[in-house]
Specification:
Layout (H helix, E strand, L loop, with lengths): L1 H4 L7 H10 L6 H14 E3 H4 L5 H13 L2 E6 L10 H15 L5 H11 L9 E7 L10 H14 L5 E6 L13 E4 L3 E5 L3 E5 L2 H15 L5 H15 L9
Parallel strand pairs: 2-3, 3-4
Antiparallel strand pairs: 1-7, 2-5, 5-6, 6-7
Helix pairs in contact: 2-3, 5-7, 6-7, 8-10
Amino acid sequence: MSKLENGRQTPTDQDILAWTRATSSEGEKEALLASLHTLEVQHAEWRRVLKAGLLPHQIELSETDQRTKLYRSFEPAVVPGLLQTPEYARALFSQVVAVHKVPNDINEAVRKRMQRQEMLYRPDKRFHFVLTEATLRYRLCSLDIMLGQLDRLISLSSLRNVRLGVIGHETQYVVDPRHGFMLYNSDLVRVETYSAELNLRQPHEIELYSSTFERLAVVASYGGAARAIINRAIGDLAPETPEDGE
């Protein structure tokens, strides 16, 4: 009980039932159980979400995709999943398997993520991505994979229903880019931490993240200017090509 009262342990259904019996508070049982289950959905620990592997989570995400008409994403460090190449996705999934010690179904998860990307070509959906220039340069995979990923971003930036913004190193921020997040319509904010996936649905949270996204989006570069930043990163990352005869 001390661990529960001090927030060091999350109660189980049986803990709630035992507490209501011991305190003659059976009338509060249903409300407490509902609050507990809402918390479990809101704060979903990766070890629980991924206990059956990576593929089930990708399937769950695809179900959310189907309901989403407007998808907004800000990422300061990692290319969003919907924009990833298979090789980049595989590299990141490998890190997840190593860190969280979950079943290795990387190939199946990559295939599902690539299948999810088909919705980028659906005219009934709109996508707005904002990345920092640092995202284009972090070495989260091999150099060849990263160069292929940057080339993919240039290609996707031309899609009619995809708006891709890049915040260059020289840009003055109006709000700090402390972590990435995704907005699904105006119903859900998803934040990924090292330990858990946060699913935020409170109106004031959605309003805050929507406002933050707009503040970040307004200082980003788009179109040719965004592609120029990506090409700058490619030029800096690409190995020098030796001249003929050397």
